[in-house]
Amino acid sequence: MYHFMEDVKHQQKHHDNSTIEAKAKLIALCTQNLGGFYQANDTIESCAHPTTDHIVKIHITDANLVERTHMRMRYKEMQRQMNLESILDQVRKRMSGSAPQQGVDNDWANLFFDFAEDISDPAMQSIWANAMVHELYRPNSISKCSLKFLHSLDNWEIKAFKKVAASAFIGKNGHPFVFRSVDNPLESDPLFSQTRMLSHCIAAGLINKGTRPLSVGFSFNYQGEDQVVSSGHLPEGTSVGYYIQSFTKIGSDLYRMVIKQPKQAVNDSRHEVWELLSDFLELGQCA
To answer: 3-class DSSP state for residue 104?
Structure first.
């Protein structure tokens, strides 16, 4: 009976400690994002994020409703200001060369700043900075829909997209695409290894589900030079047994934001595809 009671006490203590740690995690989250854990009993609790290295100390401050509201709003606006300053500093550093006289659409800019001020993750801030740089040099090239879509993406979705985009080429129309040796996006493909990531991108609306046949006369860019699928005996428009899978408008915009050229990893991935295609197709520079 004694051992049973000791086990019950031990389990209760473990449960209490686990609950305290979980509550500390909540308070730390509110502290990081709101400046504190605001309560209706006229107090504000705050603490650092709990770790195994130190005991969490929760600080309690007295504050009435008006004070709590002002503190939360002031803290939130300070965080937003720091986010914007970080992104705009990256924009300024990445600008090189003269930009066109045409200005950025005011509604686009308002939407950009409304979204960007809540982006605190460094990797995502870098992507948002790229979006602004691209729009400054090519006004009206990135849609507001693409900004809204980017705002909803998680980091893992960006990583999945990057793995697919690493093997993408740019077509004559200026939009990216990937070469395929099969027309089923879910089927394993010796020419394109990121099948699982591709399915994520298709489901997210970044890449078109359907493929279209690669044909004689199709032109695209590789390493800064225009290339064309040619054949000495087949007329233009004839299918050559391979396929292309194009990015959607949003996917094309996202490609511009996340892929910076030149980048060795991207070049290596595309070079592998180029080598495989060259073994079976006639590829040459446009005349």
So the answer is: coil
pLDDT tens digits, one per residue of 135-162: 999 999 999 999 999 999 988 889 889 9
Extended beta strands in the chain, E state = 37-39, 43-46, 59-62, 169-171, 176-180, 212-215, 219-222, 225-230, 239-246, 282-285
Distance between CA atoms of residues 190 and 182, nearest Å: 9
- Domain extents in the chain: 19-63, 79-152, 155-285
pTM over 0.85: no
Q: How far apart are CA 116 and CA 158, in angstroms?
A: 16
Q: Are 244 and 137 in contact (CB under 8 A)?
A: no
- Whether residue 285 contacts residue 227, with contact meaning beta carbons closer than 8 Å, is answered with yes
Q: For 2-46, what is each residue's pLDDT tens digit?
A: 454 455 444 455 546 667 777 777 778 777 777 777 677 777 777
